[in-house]
Every structure is written in structure tokens, then in C-alpha cells.
Amino acid sequence: MYRSVFRSALVATALVLLAAGPVAAQDYSASEEQPDIVDTAVEADGFDTLVQALKAADLVGALKGDGPFTVFAPTDEAFAALPDGQLQSLLKEENKAQLQAILQYHVVSGKAMASDVTGLDAAPTLEGRSVQFQVDDGTVKVMGQNVATVAQADIEASNGVIHVIDTVLLPPEEPAEGDM
User: Fold this and answer.
1) Domain with residues 2-23+35-165, CATH architecture
2) Of 59, 141, 162, 174, which is least packed with CB atoms within 10 Å of its CB?
3) Other CB atoms within 10 A of residue 28 CB
4) Pick from 162, 161, 167, 125: which is nearest to 149 by CA?
5) 46 phi/psi in degrees, rounded to 5
């Protein structure tokens, strides 16, 4: 019963967020090629910092790959909300591994549309640890060490899907399996 309620709530939320979200869903005709995840982020408003971070972490090529990927994409405002100096520190060459881990924590292998996520409690990220999912009062939450709210779901790209989130997710503090 809970799974059915969870599924209905997430689908309803996804539809509302899709209609009212900050990034307009793109409709591509058969003659146009749909952009990949990176190009979709570049073309949309509000993802300049994410694109800058992907470049600094040398992850652009990976997210332009075949995929498919599901990306929980923090907005510029989400990055601006990080503690003072944290983003600038992460963008430094000497912190590339930490930035890569944080960004990979926002990516799940496979194309998980909102309707697919409804049956999941968690999904493994490319960073190695899982993000958790929860619906509270019709709002979809993605949880790691902190909690992000999905502001818009199901922005399709040629190699996956983007779900816009309002917070930069941080991996849990405990090491990923195999890191010991």
C-alpha cells in the first residue's frame, strides 16, 4: 500500500514540477538531435556553476558519453548556498578528487524517470554510495549527508535524464564500501 501511495505522490509531484519548474522541457522533432546531458545543462538557465564544476572535475566527457545517466542537477542557487569559500576551494586543481566525488554522487547509472524512481528507496551513485528517496507532503526529496528537494523532474537528454535539485548533495561521511 505504501509503495502505491509513494508512487502516486511522486508521479503527481513530477507532473506539477515539470509544468512549473525553472527549466523549460524541450520538445525535439524527429529531425532535430536531442542534446546530451551536458549540452542540456549548458543551454538551460541556472546551471552555469554546475557546468563550471564539471569542467574543473574533468567530468564533461563522461557525461557526454553514451550513458544512460540520471543526473540530480543542483542549480546555481544551490551552489551559492554552500558555505563561504567551499565552492572556490572545490574548484581548485588540488581538490579535483573531492569535487569529482561530490559530482559523481549526483549521478546514477541508467535513465530513471520520476515514474521509475517511485519504486525505489535508494539508488547507487557513480561515486559508490547510494542516495535515498523520500516523498514528504508531495515533495520529492533526495538524501545523502544532507537533503535536496527536486524542483523539476524528467528533463530528457539524448543520454539520460536530469532532475533539478535545490541543494548540492554531499556524500555521507562514512567511507564507501571498498574504501577501507
Assistant:
1) Roll (2.30)
2) 174
3) 11
4) 167
5) 95, 10
